[in-house]
Fold these 2 entries.
Entry 1:
Amino acid sequence: AQSVAQPEDQVNVAEGNPLTVKCTYSVSGNPYLFWYVQYPNRGLQFLLKYITGDNLVKGSYGFEAEFNKSQTSFHLKKPSALVSDSALYFCAVNEAGTALIFGKGTTLSVSS
Amino acid sequence: AAGVIQSPRHLIKEKRETATLKCYPIPRHDTVYWYQQGPGQDPQFLISFYEKMQSDKGSIPDRFSAQQFSDYHSELNMSSLELGDSALYFCASSQGGTNEKLFFGSGTQLSVL
């Protein structure tokens, strides 16, 4: 069975500092990996995905994520955090043709 | 650009009542997914449709049913509502039966009293 874990409920960073939101996954085959962001009272917004190819994936709003097969991780990163990045971030995984499975979410709080 | 439209935005029902949630996908999207997100929880997959046929089924209770219509909009029908059904219900759409990039609606907040 496929699963995804986000070990941190909350990540706090100061504006301008780099941020990392962690995600590890478990699938039996080749993983499709995603990051979504959720702002209060809003739907989930797609940030980026890894299907195949380069391990470093660049997405929306300056975010990027690195696929590490040996560590089964797909951490979300941004070189310089903005206060407006404060939101709930979900990592998701699936295998081809199956529904997305979401992690529990990590609240990112960026202080000014 | 047009997005995924869900209606109603908010719905208040009492126990044992029924509710119908509607989802209008992005134009030319033929695939719809339904997710349930409880307070402080991650979204849980309920059911999906591709070309008006059920394509996958998740943790959808037997009290719930859904369908996709000829215009690709989808409706989630919920009967015998329970307090635990109170949640945010998201619909997402994509094209071609894939879920490589889902577009989510803003959700319907269902409160069961």
Entry 2:
Amino acid sequence: AQTVTQSQPEMSVQEAETVTLSCTYDTSESDYYLFWYKQPPSRQMILVIRQEAYKQQNATENRFSVNFQKAAKSFSLKISDSQLGDAAMYFCAYRSARGGADGLTFGKGTHLIIQP
Amino acid sequence: AAGVIQSPRHLIKEKRETATLKCYPIPRHDTVYWYQQGPGQDPQFLISFYEKMQSDKGSIPDRFSAQQFSDYHSELNMSSLELGDSALYFCASSPSVGTNEKLFFGSGTQLSVL
């Protein structure tokens, strides 16, 4: 079974600065997907960014980028120019690429606080 | 763009009562997933359906059942409710082709068991 570990229960960053959220995972599979989801106080789950394991290039979406290290099974999220609206719980998630309707396996989450 | 619709948004029940949660996936999405998120917890996978057949099963209690109908909407039926069932229940959907690795989440149903 796959596991996802987020070792930072809470992170705090000044507005406009950069913050990195950590995520490691354990799997015996070679093909899979990794995601970062954002859950603001509204509790809506919002997809931030996704990475295919077979791609070496790190995914980027505007101010959000990842550092994907497949050998180390590490998948960190970097948020540049932090904004107040970035304050939320961030969940790292894993999904097998083997097909079917396998669900996502989530980490425990990191609560990101943005200091004005 | 259409999103995943869940109803009701909020539900209050007494212990030992039953509850039914509904999920309407994005059009042309044939796979539906149910997740349970307790207070301060990460979402836990309950069950999924593909083309109206149960596809994968997670930590779903025997008191819960679910199904997917011909129009692809899904219902989660919960019986003999316990205080510990109080949680946010998410439904997500994905297509079986194209960007099928992405799950699109609804806004959730907040269930409170008193």
